[in-house]
Amino acid sequence: FEPNKRYRLSGIVLDGAATTLDTSTPRTWTLTPVTPEGNTYKISTAEQLAWVADQVNSGTNDFSGKTLELQNDLSLDYAPWVPISHGTPAFLGVFDGKGYTIYGMHIEDNTGANSLGLIGALNGTVRNVTVSGGSIKGGFDAGAIAGYAFSGSLIENCHNDGCLIDGAGLAGGIVGRTYSNVLVVACSNSGKVYGTSASGGIVGWTQGTIAVCLNTGGHVGINLPFAGIAGINQSNIYGCVNTGVDVDYTHVDMYIQGTLSGFVTVHTGAIPMCGGGARPTSGAEPTSLLNIDQTTLDLLNAPLLATTIDWRWELAAPGALPRPVKLP
User: Fold this and answer.
1) Which of 10, 103, 220, 274 minimizes the number of CB atoms within 10 Å of its CB?
2) Cβ contact 144:115 at 8 Å
3) Whether pLDDT at 284 is above 70
4) Which one is predicted more confidently, 245 or 97?
5) Do 266 and 297 contact (CB within 8 A), yes or no?
6) What percent of the chain clears pLDDT 90, i.e. is strictly above it?
7) Phi-psi region of 201 (alpha: psi -120 to 50; beta: other; left: phi over 0)
8) Beta carbons of 186 and 213 less than 8 angstroms apart
9) pTM of this prediction?
10) Looking at per-residue confidence, does 299 or 255 come out higher?
11) Predicted pLDDT of residue 294
């Protein structure tokens, strides 16, 4: 067990015999309405977040032009959870986690439904939130932050802290699939991703842009294609770092139709640089994140200079872990 982590107890042992806890009566969420302050909905309880999901899924409110703000950390208690937008209609607003964490999100689908994640179908913005622990099982288009993101969406400074993505097609640690003109930036994944088709530590299948992202999650993918950053890339990947040790291909798998520039593979074992197609040069290949120096960060940041992306890698101090920072 790790300190300051939440764990789900699923069984006990009495006199040497395994006993499964009774979970036959799943928790049902009491929906607590939120009164907006102008165009802002302030969310401070799991019941209020459940109300938001119900509003979107029932077609009552897609939150277009509205902002949802977390006011504190939330625990979903590993109880069955329904995503905010389970496909149609999509979530059209801004979800701002304000740096807070949602613990214990558990989504399980046995019907093959798509769009599984904190936000299932995103046609807006989600930023500054961490999903910690929990799991998403089954389905299609699955990620801790979003199942899929429509063109024009933004996923910024979002993190998967150990949420398992298990058995989904088009699976990503952050988002399962992104369409064109979607930006996934300054995100990180430490959860394992077991995808049945295109799977990646950050995105399963991307037609948008991924930049300044870090994957430390291992064992990405069950079937090809899968990789540390994106299983399939049809657009651009800038300045990303992968340290996942159980992936077959460190950044993008066999379907490289876009560009891959300014990346670093942290070698902790015999991991090939890139699967299929061209093999871009990454320059320095350190053995630990702690060994990434300013020269290597300059390599990561260089491709971003010609873009409008306002995030960069930074070393707070020599020997410190690199971190993404937003330009003023």
Assistant:
1) 10
2) no
3) no
4) 97
5) no
6) 48
7) alpha
8) yes
9) 0.85
10) 299
11) 80
Q: Which amino acid is at 152?
A: G
Q: How far apart are CA 322 and CA 139, in angstroms?
A: 34
Residue 101 CA to chain centroid, in angstroms? 13
Other Cβ atoms less than 10 A from the Cβ of 223: the count is: 12
| pLDDT one-digit tens code per residue, 151-166 | 999 999 999 999 999 8
Sequence-distant (≥ 6) Cβ neighbours of residue 176 within 8 angstroms: 115, 116, 117, 140, 141, 142, 143, 146, 147, 148, 168, 170, 203, 204, 205
Q: Which of 240, 231, 312, 254 is closest to 282 using CA atoms?
A: 240
Q: Please, are residues 232 and 202 in contact by the beta-carbon 8 Å criterion? A: no
Q: Judge whether 216 and 241 are in contact, CB under 8 Å.
A: no
Residue with tokens 């939150």: 63
